[in-house]
Structure formats: structure tokens, C-alpha cells
Prior knowledge:
By secondary structure, the chain is mostly beta strands. It is 13% helix and 53% strand.
Amino acid sequence: MKNLIIAILFFSTLSLQAQNVVGYWYGTANVKNGASANNYLVELILKQDKTNVQGIINYYFRNTFRSFKLNGHYNASSRQLNVYNIPVTYFASTGVMEVDCAMDLNATLRVAKAGSNLNGKFLGKPAYRNVCPEILFDLKLNKDLDQDSLLQALRTFKETYQVWRPSASDTLIAATIITRPVVNYVVNNQYKERENTIADEIVVDSDSLQVDFYDNGEVDGDSISVFYNKNLIAFNRILSARSIHFTVGLDSTKETNEITMLADNLGSIPPNTALMLVYDGKKRYEVRMTSNLEKNATLIIRRRKKS
């Protein structure tokens, strides 16, 4: 009877482990039918919410390090993990010119007493399949990393590695703000209670500036309020790939003008981060803003002195 109970507990544990792919996975990947010189060192950092999977992939290929955000799905019944649209350096790239293959990751979770593995391949998208061969991998789960370590890695990525930038021709606007004081006593009190930290300082020539706020990378539900010269001009605006747009006129009676971002929340992955684009005529500034529930992020604007 004792042995039966142990066996039941053992298989129950394996069954629970098969329900998710959360964790830090690492190993090598090899081009199918390729030489050993075509090895990739791969890391996956995954978190899961029901069937949805998010995370980071880091990989090293020759002298190149790449890091990207991941989105995909995990089917616990079939133990299949699918992650989409990963730029993978083409194995025949040279040091002079690197080419990316657009690929999907398809893997099967294998759980055993000795440990868990993700076994699968990177498969080229249809348009790339004739040129980009499959890349096979076998990744092991590192059980020593806890959930806090995974979240810290995701936070670090969010603040450090951002590959998306809106182009100058990107005119998609989610909301246009009329620059005038608005009233929200709760947000005003939060602004006064939090520390204002300087994210950047710029010197401009124009009397007025065009400003756009975007989510800094992966859209994860970040919501912000915006202050101009300590006056609230917008609150509870959700950041996305479409901009929150407004025009500010510089107050010539002040030595400096300020745009401050207050975090209404931290999104699904703290902290609250935004990409702010400031247009001074034809010149564009990119400012990365990071705020949380204790600190606001402020851009200091100085008007260039005319000689």
C-alpha cells in the first residue's frame, strides 16, 4: 500500500508539472543537417496565464547576442508549446552582413523524474521555409530559479531591450489631448506624494512641441497620467502602439518646462514604461520614461538661448 501511495504521488507530481511551461529553460539549438559551427545557445524565460505564454528568448550565435519578447500558447493536453514570429539569425550570415529568418517555435514538454525538457524546433515562416532550414533544440528546465527571479528578468528586459520604434511616418493616434488643466483630486494627490525623478533633459528651439506617448515595447496594459508644468492635462490613458498625442506651448517666463508621467498602474509586468517622442520642428527626441507607484518620471525642457 505504501508503494502504491508513493507511485500515485509521483505521477500526480508529473501531471501537475505538465500543466505549465513556467520557468527558465536553457540548452543548445542546431541547424538540421548542419555542422557543429552552426550551434545556437538558447535561453527561454517563460511565464504563463492559463493557455497564454509570454516571456523572453535570449540566444547567442557566434559573436552575436539577441534578445526578444515572446508571445505564444501552451496546450496542456497535448503538451505543445507554440511561440510565433521570432527573428533568428540566418546560420550562413557573415560578420559583415547578418540576415534574419522569421521563424516560429514549436516544442513538446517532456516531464520525467530526472527533469523537464522542451524538445522541438524553430520552423521558418512559409515565405522563408525554402531558405531557412529547421533549427532543432532540446532545452532543460532550471529548477533553481523561482518565480521572483523570472519576474525580475522580465522587468529587466522591459527596461533594457526594446526593439520596436515607431517611424517618423507613424501617424496612428489613439487619443489627442487638448493641453489644458483638468481636475482629478486623486491623481493630483498621488503626484504630490511621489518623488519626481528626471528621466532626461533636452534643449529645443521651437516655441511649441509635438509630443507622443507609446508603450515602451510590449503592450501590457500600462496606464499613465500626464502633467505639464505641474498641472494635470490627462489621466488614466492606456499606452499602446498608437500614440497619446498632444501639443505643448513653452512658457517663456520659466527657465525650464516639465512634462511628467505618473503611473496609474504597473501593467502586467512592472514597472510602467513609455516611449515619449518629442518633435522640435524637424528634430525628434526619443525619451524612455520609467515610473512606478513611488516615483514619477519627468522630462526637463530648456529653450535654447538665441545669440
